[in-house]
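Please fill in the sequence for the structure shown.

STRUCTURE ENCODING:
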């Protein structure tokens, strides 16, 4: 556990030793009135990281139908019916200046399409405005951008936004302030069966799908291992068999105490020192 805490602090230099890492979960009703947030908290707990995390935001509600894990931090910045266009121009600066988050995760754009009738370029421009505000508040902020979940009618603009997100990430990610993608799109496996009857919001199955995309990316950033160019990532969970003196070469391998595996991990699976030991499904470390 102490090793995980060490890696967490090393990976997030913006947070002083002993302070919790501030994470903002930003979005619309797909963030506010659904149940994937506590599911992600369960993943953080399993990874031994929940005690090191402070969810921040002006909202603190959780739907009564959602399971509430022990110790769950209810704060978030999900606002039903709100558009990325308006958040970018009227709200994000104040929110991030007040909290100065270390990590921001967001899924926004569905209301821009359905209510605002905006095009993909407008939504991407709002993303850029939000990113600039995040970095003004914390130059080393780490960002998880979600590809949008589909609508039941497979809206073409939603699909266009998802297609454009990797290019946007490539243009804006930096080593100081990396951006990674949590792929919640139809192409990644989100189906109509994961939507409620309204064709827009996730049901329980959809919540689990979102949590399975967001949680591992958040854990990667918390452990200081994310941000390698914004890829959607694959990866496995190696057993504790890779050693510095073994058959695998050390070039390109993770350093001592670095991450070497876990669900969604796309980095090295070998260790330059020690062995890659499994802590849980989401995190393995060179020890």
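FILLED IN BY: designer on duty
SEQUENCE:
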């Amino acid at each position: 556990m102490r090793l995980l805490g060490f890696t967490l602090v090393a990976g997030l230099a913006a947070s002083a030793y002993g302070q919790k890492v501030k994470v903002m979960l930003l979005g619309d009703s797909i963030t506010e009135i659904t149940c994937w947030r506590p599911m992600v908290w369960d993943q953080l707990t399993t990874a031994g990281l929940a005690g090191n995390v402070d969810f921040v935001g002006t909202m603190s509600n959780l739907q009564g139908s959602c399971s509430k894990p022990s110790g769950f931090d209810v704060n978030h910045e999900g606002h039903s019916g709100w558009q990325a266009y308006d958040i970018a121009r009227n709200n994000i600066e104040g929110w991030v200046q007040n909290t100065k988050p270390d990590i921001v995760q967001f899924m926004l754009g569905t209301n821009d399409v359905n209510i605002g009738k905006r095009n993909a370029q407008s939504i991407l421009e709002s993303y850029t405005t939000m990113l600039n505000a995040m970095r003004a508040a914390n130059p080393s902020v780490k960002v998880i951008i979600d590809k949008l979940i589909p609508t039941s009618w497979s809206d073409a603009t939603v699909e266009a936004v998802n297609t454009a997100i990797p290019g946007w990430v490539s243009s804006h990610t930096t080593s100081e302030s990396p951006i990674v993608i949590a792929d919640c799109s139809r192409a990644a496996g989100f189906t109509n069966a994961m939507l409620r009857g309204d064709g827009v919001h996730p049901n329980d199955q959809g919540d689990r799908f979102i949590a399975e995309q967001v949680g591992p990316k958040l854990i990667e950033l918390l452990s200081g291992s994310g941000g390698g160019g914004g890829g959607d990532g694959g990866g496995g969970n190696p057993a504790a068999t890779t050693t510095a003196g073994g058959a695998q070469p050390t070039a390109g391998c993770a350093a001592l105490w670095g991450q070497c595996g876990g669900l969604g991990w796309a980095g090295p699976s070998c260790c330059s020192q020690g062995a890659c030991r499994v802590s849980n499904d989401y995190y393995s470390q060179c020890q």
